[in-house]
Amino acid sequence: MSEYLLEIQDVNASYGPIQALRGVSMNVREGEIVTLIGANGAGKSTLLMTIFGDPQASSGSIHYRGQEITHIPMHEISRLGIAQVPEGRRIFPGMSVEENLRMGTMPIGDTHQETDLQTMFAMFPRLKERRSQRAGTLSGGEQQMLAIGRALMSRPRLLLLDEPSLGLAPLIVRQILSSLRTIADQGTTIFLVEQNANHALKLADRGYVMVNGEIRLSGTGEELLANPEVRNAYLGGH
Question: Which helix (H) or strand (E) holds 144?
């Protein structure tokens, strides 16, 4: 059995004629927060989507809990204990907050639905206040909380997050990232794609830097924060 919850080996992936991932290898251990940083268009979101099966890798392998999932359909991947919070949140705007959360149990059934609904309301009190409100009328930060809560309703062992701080005010970003630490402390492993390198590396146990579809650097969050190359490229030299 592999020591890694998620193991990616030499993965290539393309959108039509455009190669988005080039020989990507990386791993995530159970209980970690691992972050992937890089510029816009580096391939970060493509890697998350490739883990989740769309697009599928053209070569290389992806293993989850020792099982190869490289060419498994998305709906089957979600049943294995992986949940994704995509960039842009993609909630159901015409449904209520509570209905959105309940939709998150589709991969596992509704056995734990009532218990987990109360857990989400305890984690995100704002959602409890707005449980009957249409999701499309929430603020950006509230929608992000809802997207994370909906993903957690499937009781994942691995949570994939794509740019959760995008477009949010600094105070809300801190609240969202603080909630991720709580989620990890409660036993969910997190793989975080984030353009805000400073916040992401402070939160993460380990990190990777992607440039033009390739992993160029890796290390602990502290090591990458102190790396002059990372500081100059992603932290404004500070």
Answer: helix 140-152
Residues 150 and 160 in one domain: no
- pLDDT for the residue 1: 58
pLDDT at 89: 76
Tell whether 86 is covered by a domain: no
Q: What is the pLDDT of residue 238?
A: 52
- The CA angle 60-62-68, to the nearest 5 degrees, is 110
Q: Which residues have a Cβ under 8 Å from the Cβ of 142 and sit 6 or more positions away? A: 126, 127, 130
Cβ atoms < 10 Å from Cβ of 232: 11
Taking CA atoms, 147 is separated from 101, 119, 141, 142, in Å, by 8, 15, 10, 9
Instruction: Determine, yes or no, domain membership for 87.
Output: no
Whether this prediction's pTM lies above 0.85 is answered by yes
Q: What is the pLDDT of residues 33-42, one digit of tens each?
A: 999 999 888 9
- Taking alpha carbons only, the member of 115, 113, 93 closest to residue 104 is 113
Residue 98 within any structural domain of the chain: yes
Tally of domains in the chain: 2
* Residue 137 belongs to domain spanning: 92-154
The list of the chain residues with pLDDT below 70 reads 1, 237-238
Same domain, 29 and 135: no
**Residue 96: both structure tokens together:** 């209520």
Q: Which tokens sit at 162? A: 């794509």
